[in-house]
């Protein structure tokens, strides 16, 4: 169950990262409240995952999911560049996430 919590924590991290742009510096109420809610849920789920997962592994995977998801969403939603170098770097991050998940001792 810890891995499910960790994955969902990463998804909510994507939500708050995307929400930050919509808050316009926390000047818009609804996006600000939704972003703060995503932050709380993300950290809460990360905390649940950390009950059984090693800190370094869980934190790296949490930030990796957030990073990859936010970059992909930025490309899809905000028209950010999707060139070969960026896609290659995303692939390396995903490889690191998979490697940490498969590594012994988690």
Automatic annotation (TrEMBL):
Membrane topology per record: Multi-pass membrane protein
| InterPro entries in the record | EmrE-like (IPR037185), Small_drug/metabolite_transptr (IPR000390), Small_multidrug_res (IPR045324)
What is any Pfam family matched here? Multi_Drug_Res
GO CC, sorted alphabetically, is:
plasma membrane
Q: Which family does it belong to?
A: Belongs to the drug/metabolite transporter (DMT) superfamily. Small multidrug resistance (SMR) (TC 2.A.7.1) family. Gdx/SugE subfamily.
Q: Which UniProt keywords apply?
A: Cell membrane, Membrane, Transmembrane, Transmembrane helix, Transport
Location(s), subcellular: Cell membrane
Record the organism: Skermanella aerolata
BP-aspect Gene Ontology terms: xenobiotic detoxification by transmembrane export across the plasma membrane
Has the keyword Protease been applied to this entry?
no
Q: What is its main location?
A: membrane
Q: Which sequence ranges are marked TM in the entry?
A: 29-50, 57-78, 84-103
Q: What is this protein called?
A: Guanidinium exporter
In alphabetical order, the GO MF annotations are: transmembrane transporter activity
